[in-house]
Write a structure and sequence with these properties.
This protein is mainly alpha-helical and 129 residues long. It contains six helices and no strands. Helix 4 crosses helix 6. It is globular.
């Protein structure tokens, strides 16, 4: 995690299903998607970018970080609270006084939000297929 701080990520039912399906392929290592060069490091951003380019996306259309931006925008547009979204994205509180006192993880709300997000993606997928 950035800044070497632990970050809890609630997973949706769909995410748990995907992880159980790919576990036989990825093994039981520290990372679900390890680096091609070393299992002790996560997959690089460049690997994600290369995959997007192979799928036909230009750098103007999508980046790895663009998935975070798309999720953030959609969650805000659908009324999820700012504190919950920002905590899920591991964004630090900019107000130093608030940051020194507020250490809330918002886990219950984040679980609901991540399940909503997965269901939303499933709904979009059905519209396309």
């Amino acid at each position: 995690m950035k800044m070497r701080q632990e970050h809890i990520v609630p997973l949706s039912i769909q995410a748990m299903e995907v992880l159980s399906i790919i576990k036989p392929l990825t093994g039981g290592g520290q990372y679900v998607f390890p680096s091609l060069r070393s299992a002790d490091r996560p997959m690089s951003e460049n690997t994600v970018l290369a995959a997007l380019r192979r799928m036909g996306y230009s750098k103007e259309e999508m980046t790895g970080h663009g998935f975070r931006a798309a999720a953030s925008t959609t969650l805000y547009e659908n009324g999820w609270p700012s504190d919950v979204i920002e905590r899920q994205l591991a964004h630090a509180e900019r107000n130093k006084i608030k940051a020194s006192y507020n250490h809330a993880e918002h886990l219950a709300e984040r679980r609901k939000m991540m399940q909503w997000w997965a269901d939303h993606i499933d709904g979009l997928k059905k519209q396309v297929l």
